[in-house]
Specification:
It catalyses: N-acetyl-alpha-D-glucosamine 1-phosphate = N-acetyl-D-glucosamine 6-phosphate. Pathway: Nucleotide-sugar biosynthesis; UDP-N-acetyl-alpha-D-glucosamine biosynthesis; N-acetyl-alpha-D-glucosamine 1-phosphate from alpha-D-glucosamine 6-phosphate (route I): step 2/2. Its cofactor is Mg(2+). This protein is of the alpha/beta class. Among the domains are: about 5-160, Alpha-D-Glucose-1,6-Bisphosphate, subunit A, domain 3 (Alpha-D-Glucose-1,6-Bisphosphate, Chain A, domain 3, 3-Layer(aba) Sandwich), CATH 3.40.120.10; about 455-545, TATA-Binding Protein (2-Layer Sandwich). The chain contains 18 helices and 19 strands. It has helices spanning about 5-10, 35-55, 90-100, 100-115, 135-150, 160-175, 185-200, 220-230, 255-260, 305-320, 340-345, 360-365, 385-395, 400-415, 425-440, 440-445, 480-490, 520-535; strands at about 30, 60-65, 70-80, 125-130, 155-160, 210-215, 235-240, 275-280, 290-295, 300, 330-335, 350-355, 370-375, 380-385, 455-460, 470, 475-480, 495-500, 510-515. The strands form 5 sheets. The chain has a 5-stranded mixed sheet with strand order 1-3-2-4-5, with helices on both faces. The longest helix is centred in the middle third of the chain and has 18 residues, at about 305-320. The protein is globular. The chain binds 2-acetamido-2-deoxy-1-O-phosphono-alpha-D-galactopyranose (NG1) and zinc ion. 2-acetamido-2-deoxy-1-O-phosphono-alpha-D-galactopyranose binds near residues 26 and 510.
């Protein structure tokens, strides 16, 4: 079947800007919003094709640039089980987005449809949402033209969070089956989360109020609805909720600000009281960072690694108490950015795997455990229950009241935790459940282990593609000889660790360093940064002055 003529007609309305090269990376397409119109249209077409290929299953499309500045935007596809787009299609997305003219695009499309054996007569179904960015509405209009071009049945989820969009995709595709994931509506999502949370804390004291920094993004209206559903069970105070103030999104607030600057967002100064718990969401509410001020008003950050440690230990304890330890193996997945102290703490308690950066790697590795806990240090993560484990939890006959209670808790956790993707609001409730059960304050949670001081540095190089890594990105194999020089440097630092990798989302190389003191971690990072810069023939006049 040839490509319907409507595709070319619509494609003419969304010309590709000259001299821009797009790439479907770890976070989908993401760049300055003003050049994205053609990409959105073409992603609309691609989503419809993906649905046709999968026999009319609903595909999700999320328009967001997460923690990036407000002028950026982006788009990513969600596969039928609510997971990231199959990697084999990422390359096709890149090729289609870069076809220069309408004719080139139709040609590429035709080749792709033939090669992938897509039956164009099949139905196509999509569900799409966007964050609060001002560029969102017009980009969604381009996306909708892509759906129309192939006659896809499209459902608009409106302004929503990335994890809710993933939830909806799974709920729609499992509706009426034995794997039903919940009602396929935002309301269904809130009911599922709030019911599970209330069960888990039913016998616990109401916690002290938690401040949520909503990053002036979509987390604000969504958290406000969660507040209504939680009622008195969880006092939440929403801050940074200005979703219509130009320039406010992710600006000096949000999870990425907290992680990279390791500071309290200035807007929370005087609001967060010593001892009180606070947390930050990012612009699409899939990342979460916790923090508190000690009695001297010193800021302490509780990042994704601390969340993994807290949650994994709790799950292991429940599994043991339920008498399920021989049937349900719990494991943790991290990336090389995980703080060395967290890896040590976790490895002493359960299996830990390190995988390359990018949620899809973590998610897939976590699926190999019965219960897989994965978190990136930046606060993106979740806990996956394998299908077999869900059956075990359903069928298991506990023999004591203690076993029965632990089993009920595990069942409720399975409901509370978003099984499709990292979800800041679901993760926040999960953290609150564990804190309530352990009667931990932020300080006690923080004391599980002491973070090694660390530093992340960006280096702008002529061509980041010459950087190739192995061993879950911990070793450089190209440029040749550079890793050896890094090793020589690292050896001179007490507790030193450093690695270099090309970013998948920005045109930079990232340098991570850790050492036993703050000064040493900084020095190591800047020395390695300098090494990378000089090795790659950087221009001496633009060499950052902090590089030693
Ligand atoms: P890159 O730019 O590849 O380092 C960043 C984050 C990832 C992940 C992606 C997707 C760091 C060091 N890197 O990737 O963890 O979240 O963005 O958003 O935080
Ligand atoms: Zn995000």
């Amino acid at each position: 079947m040839p490509i319907p003529p409507a595709v070319a007609k619509f494609a003419d309305l969304h010309p590709k800007p000259a001299h821009v090269r797009f790439q479907y990376g770890t976070a989908g397409f993401r760049t300055v919003a003003s050049v994205l119109d053609s990409v959105l249209f073409r992603v609309g077409v691609l989503a419809a094709l993906r649905s046709k290929k999968l026999d009319g299953k609903t595909i999700g499309v999320m328009v967001t640039a997460s923690h990036n500045p407000e002028q950026d935007n982006g788009v990513k596809l969600v596969d039928p089980r609510g997971e990231m787009l199959d990697t084999s299609w990422e390359g096709h997305a890149t090729v289609l987005s870069n076809a220069q003219t309408t004719d080139d695009f139709i040609n590429e499309l035709d080749k792709f449809v033939q090669a992938a054996k897509i039956d164009l007569s099949k139905p196509a179904r999509v569900v799409y949402g966007r964050d609060t960015r001002p560029s969102g509405a017009s980009l969604v209009a381009a996306l909708e033209d892509g759906f129309k071009a192939l006659g896809a049945e499209a459902r608009d989820a409106g302004v929503t969070t990335t994890p809710i969009l993933h939830y909806l995709v799974r709920a729609i595709n499992t509706k009426g089956t034995k794997d039903s994931y919940g009602d396929d509506s935002e309301e269904g999502y809130f009911l599922k989360l709030s019911a599970a949370y209330k069960k888990l804390v039913a016998t616990r004291q109401t916690p002290s109020p938690l401040i949520i920094d909503c990053a002036n993004g979509v987390g604000a209206p969504i958290a406000a609805r969660l507040v209504e559903h939680l009622g008195d069970s969880m006092p939440l105070i929403l801050e940074n909720t200005s979703i219509t103030t130009p320039g406010a999104l992710n600006n000096a607030c949000g999870a990425d600000y907290v992680k990279t600057s390791q500071k309290l967002p200035p807007s929370l100064d005087g609001r967060l009281q010593p001892g009180q718990r606070g947390c930050s969401l990012d612009g699409d509410a899939d990342r979460l960072m916790y923090f508190y001020l000690d009695e001297r008003s010193q800021f302490h950050m509780l990042d994704g690694d601390k969340i993994a440690a807290l949650v994994a230990a709790f799950v292991v304890e429940l599994v043991k108490t339920a008498g399920l330890q021989s049937q349900v193996k719990v494991g943790v997945v991290q990336t090389a950015y995980a703080n060395g102290a967290s890896t040590k703490y976790l490895s002493e308690r359960l299996p830990v795997r390190c995988v390359p950066t990018g949620v899809k790697h973590l998610h897939h590795a976590a699926e190999h455990y019965n219960i897989g806990v994965y978190f990136e240090a930046n606060g993106h993560g979740t806990v996956l229950f394998s299908p077999a484990t869900q059956e075990t939890l359903r069928d298991y006959q506990p023999s004591t009241p203690a076993q029965s209670t632990a089993l009920e808790h595990l069942r409720s956790l399975n409901q509370l935790i978003n099984q499709t993707v990292g979800d800041a609001l679901s993760d926040m409730l999960l953290v609150e459940v564990v804190l309530a059960h352990k009667a931990y304050s932020g300080l006690e949670w923080d004391s599980l282990y002491v973070d090694l001081p660390n530093r992340l540095v960006k280096v702008v190089v002529a061509d980041r593609n010459q950087f190739k890594t192995e061993d879950a990105e911990r070793q450089l194999i190209s440029p040749p000889g550079l890793q050896q020089k890094i090793n020589e440097l690292v050896r001179r630092y007490d507790g030193g660790r450093s690695f270099v990798r090309p970013s998948g989302t920005e045109d930079v190389v990232r340098v991570y360093a850790e050492a036993s003191s703050r000064a040493q971690a900084d020095e190591l990072a800047f020395r390695v940064g300098g090494l990378v810069y000089d090795f790659c023939g950087g221009n001496p006049t633009t060499r950052p002055k902090e590089f030693i």
